[in-house]
Amino acid sequence: MGKSRRSAEAVVEPVDGGLAELIPDRERAHAWTLLIDGAPQSHVDLDDPTYLSFEYQRRLGHVIDLVAPPGKPVHAVHLGGGAFTLARYLAATRPRSTQQVVERDAALVRLVRQRLPLESNARIRVRSLDAREGLAKVADGWADLVIADVFSGARTPAHLTSTEFLDEVRRTLKPGGCYAANLADGPPLAHLRGQIATAAARFSELALVADPTVLRGKRFGNAVLVASGTPLPLAELTRRAASDPHPGRVEHGKALLDFTGGAAAVTDAGAVASPAPPASVFR
What we know:
The protein has 9 helices and 12 strands. 43% of the residues are buried. The strands form 2 sheets. An 8-stranded mixed β-sheet has the order 7-6-5-8-9-11-10-12, with helices on both faces. By secondary structure, the protein is of the alpha/beta class. Helix 1 (55-66) packs parallel to helix 2 and helix 1 (55-66) runs antiparallel to helix 8. The radius of gyration is 18 Å and the shape is globular.
């Protein structure tokens, strides 16, 4: 039996980052979509936390699946909480894992905890801090996986796009640990190219998973960047991305570095927020 839903109607409440809406999924009895100022942020199915509706979340789910042998508990840091979709997924697929979620919007955290409560046995600690401030509190070499999915006003804040930020990510990762980031960009893809170059300055192994039309600069969309100091499971990641309902392409190696077009790595001194999506994306 699924958890009882407090209301079949939408929940609308102001949070620190804007106006939050929880919209019930009419096709799944206990599932909700979280929107902030009209922009979809997360989808959660309380009955089945392994169900990932959003395209980019499925791709991050593949990274979670491949970061360690199936079912093995891991230490994970989530920068950006939303509705805790990926933390719930990891807790369900890798029981006994220990997770830290860093979500700056304290009012959003309260809303999600109240309306979409976490399982009582989930080993998930939530900190209401800026992502970089929260990351600084993670012990050296603690994490098997760091996931960055931070948006403010539908844009990734500038201070989360730099080599200095990635230095903090690397500090928290175990040897062989993995970093994955949800990036959003559109033509001419200057932000995405710069983020690949930035990651290449700090990690020896990179892969990018995205819709081919996004990679060709035909439309605004999400891309998942995966980075590590050790070889990535490229064959399995490619297979899983290709079998998604909306198939993705995996770029890596020389082709991925060529894709940057000579873009320079981003530092704190020159960092800017990611571009805002066009209004048509949310229509």
